[in-house]
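Could someone model zinc ion with this protein?
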Amino acid sequence: MNDLRGLYQEIILDHYKRPRHHGVATGANREAEGFNPLCGDKVKVTLAMKDGTIEDVAFEGEGCAISTASASLMTEALHGKTEAEARELFQRFRQLLTGGEVVDEEELGKLAALSGVRDYPMRVKCATLAWHTLQAALDKADDAVSTE
Ligand code: ZN
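Reply:
Sure, complex below.
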Protein backbone atom coordinates (compact mmCIF):
# COMPACT_ATOMS: atom_id res chain seq x y z
CA MET A 1 0.00 0.00 0.00
CA ASN A 2 2.89 2.36 0.74
CA ASP A 3 4.27 1.68 -2.73
CA LEU A 4 0.92 2.60 -4.20
CA ARG A 5 0.79 5.82 -2.17
CA GLY A 6 4.26 6.68 -3.39
CA LEU A 7 3.25 6.08 -6.98
CA TYR A 8 0.13 8.20 -6.52
CA GLN A 9 2.19 11.06 -5.10
CA GLU A 10 4.54 10.84 -8.05
CA ILE A 11 1.64 11.08 -10.49
CA ILE A 12 0.21 14.12 -8.68
CA LEU A 13 3.58 15.91 -8.58
CA ASP A 14 4.24 15.09 -12.23
CA HIS A 15 0.88 16.52 -13.34
CA TYR A 16 1.32 19.56 -11.11
CA LYS A 17 4.76 20.37 -12.49
CA ARG A 18 3.95 19.51 -16.09
CA PRO A 19 0.20 19.94 -16.57
CA ARG A 20 -1.21 18.19 -19.64
CA HIS A 21 -3.56 19.99 -22.00
CA HIS A 22 -2.89 23.36 -20.43
CA GLY A 23 -4.36 26.15 -22.55
CA VAL A 24 -7.44 26.28 -24.74
CA ALA A 25 -8.96 23.27 -26.48
CA THR A 26 -8.54 23.22 -30.25
CA GLY A 27 -11.87 24.18 -31.82
CA ALA A 28 -13.39 24.91 -28.40
CA ASN A 29 -17.15 25.43 -28.45
CA ARG A 30 -17.95 25.14 -24.72
CA GLU A 31 -16.38 26.74 -21.70
CA ALA A 32 -16.91 27.41 -18.03
CA GLU A 33 -14.98 28.92 -15.16
CA GLY A 34 -14.74 27.67 -11.61
CA PHE A 35 -13.46 29.08 -8.34
CA ASN A 36 -12.79 27.40 -5.04
CA PRO A 37 -12.79 30.17 -2.40
CA LEU A 38 -11.64 27.78 0.34
CA CYS A 39 -8.23 27.48 -1.28
CA GLY A 40 -8.18 30.20 -3.95
CA ASP A 41 -8.06 27.75 -6.87
CA LYS A 42 -9.26 29.08 -10.22
CA VAL A 43 -9.83 27.07 -13.34
CA LYS A 44 -11.26 27.58 -16.80
CA VAL A 45 -12.21 24.51 -18.80
CA THR A 46 -12.69 24.61 -22.56
CA LEU A 47 -14.20 21.78 -24.56
CA ALA A 48 -14.45 20.94 -28.22
CA MET A 49 -17.58 18.79 -28.53
CA LYS A 50 -18.53 17.09 -31.75
CA ASP A 51 -21.50 14.75 -32.13
CA GLY A 52 -21.68 14.31 -28.36
CA THR A 53 -18.02 13.35 -28.03
CA ILE A 54 -15.22 15.30 -26.40
CA GLU A 55 -12.73 15.78 -29.21
CA ASP A 56 -10.49 18.09 -27.22
CA VAL A 57 -10.43 19.47 -23.71
CA ALA A 58 -8.01 21.80 -21.96
CA PHE A 59 -7.74 23.93 -18.87
CA GLU A 60 -6.18 27.15 -17.67
CA GLY A 61 -5.94 28.58 -14.23
CA GLU A 62 -3.99 28.86 -11.05
CA GLY A 63 -4.29 26.74 -8.01
CA CYS A 64 -2.71 24.40 -5.53
CA ALA A 65 -0.97 21.17 -6.48
CA ILE A 66 -4.12 19.10 -5.96
CA SER A 67 -6.38 21.29 -8.10
CA THR A 68 -3.83 21.60 -10.91
CA ALA A 69 -2.96 17.89 -10.94
CA SER A 70 -6.65 16.98 -10.84
CA ALA A 71 -7.47 19.26 -13.78
CA SER A 72 -4.56 17.83 -15.75
CA LEU A 73 -5.55 14.23 -15.01
CA MET A 74 -9.15 15.04 -15.87
CA THR A 75 -8.32 16.41 -19.31
CA GLU A 76 -6.21 13.35 -20.01
CA ALA A 77 -9.03 11.02 -18.98
CA LEU A 78 -11.73 12.82 -20.97
CA HIS A 79 -10.31 12.78 -24.49
CA GLY A 80 -12.59 10.81 -26.78
CA LYS A 81 -15.23 10.26 -24.10
CA THR A 82 -18.90 10.90 -24.76
CA GLU A 83 -20.76 13.45 -22.66
CA ALA A 84 -22.54 10.63 -20.79
CA GLU A 85 -19.25 8.85 -20.10
CA ALA A 86 -17.72 12.09 -18.83
CA ARG A 87 -20.58 12.65 -16.39
CA GLU A 88 -20.40 9.02 -15.25
CA LEU A 89 -16.66 9.35 -14.67
CA PHE A 90 -17.26 12.44 -12.50
CA GLN A 91 -19.76 10.50 -10.39
CA ARG A 92 -17.28 7.70 -9.84
CA PHE A 93 -14.45 10.11 -9.14
CA ARG A 94 -16.58 11.92 -6.58
CA GLN A 95 -17.48 8.60 -4.94
CA LEU A 96 -13.77 7.81 -4.74
CA LEU A 97 -13.08 11.10 -2.92
CA THR A 98 -16.03 11.10 -0.58
CA GLY A 99 -15.75 7.40 0.21
CA GLY A 100 -19.48 6.88 0.08
CA GLU A 101 -19.19 3.76 -2.00
CA VAL A 102 -16.47 1.32 -2.83
CA VAL A 103 -15.04 2.24 -6.19
CA ASP A 104 -12.88 0.04 -8.36
CA GLU A 105 -9.74 2.18 -8.38
CA GLU A 106 -8.31 0.33 -11.34
CA GLU A 107 -11.28 1.34 -13.42
CA LEU A 108 -10.48 4.99 -12.74
CA GLY A 109 -6.91 4.61 -13.98
CA LYS A 110 -4.65 7.49 -13.06
CA LEU A 111 -7.53 9.43 -11.53
CA ALA A 112 -7.19 7.05 -8.57
CA ALA A 113 -3.96 8.89 -7.73
CA LEU A 114 -6.16 11.46 -6.00
CA SER A 115 -7.82 8.91 -3.73
CA GLY A 116 -5.66 10.06 -0.79
CA VAL A 117 -7.58 13.34 -0.80
CA ARG A 118 -10.50 11.59 0.89
CA ASP A 119 -8.49 11.75 4.13
CA TYR A 120 -8.48 15.57 3.86
CA PRO A 121 -12.07 16.79 3.46
CA MET A 122 -10.92 20.40 2.99
CA ARG A 123 -9.03 19.37 -0.14
CA VAL A 124 -11.88 17.50 -1.79
CA LYS A 125 -13.09 20.77 -3.33
CA CYS A 126 -9.62 21.33 -4.79
CA ALA A 127 -9.75 17.93 -6.46
CA THR A 128 -13.31 18.27 -7.77
CA LEU A 129 -13.14 21.92 -8.92
CA ALA A 130 -12.14 21.10 -12.50
CA TRP A 131 -14.85 18.44 -12.67
CA HIS A 132 -17.57 20.76 -11.41
CA THR A 133 -16.40 23.28 -14.00
CA LEU A 134 -16.53 20.62 -16.70
CA GLN A 135 -20.08 19.78 -15.63
CA ALA A 136 -21.03 23.46 -15.86
CA ALA A 137 -19.63 23.59 -19.40
CA LEU A 138 -21.62 20.47 -20.35
CA ASP A 139 -24.77 21.85 -18.71
CA LYS A 140 -24.47 25.05 -20.72
CA ALA A 141 -24.52 22.89 -23.80
CA ASP A 142 -27.84 21.50 -22.65
CA ASP A 143 -29.22 25.03 -22.42
CA ALA A 144 -28.06 25.71 -25.94
CA VAL A 145 -30.11 22.88 -27.37
CA SER A 146 -33.16 23.58 -25.20
CA THR A 147 -36.33 23.83 -27.21
CA GLU A 148 -38.09 25.96 -24.60
ZN1 ZN B 1 -6.69 23.92 -3.69
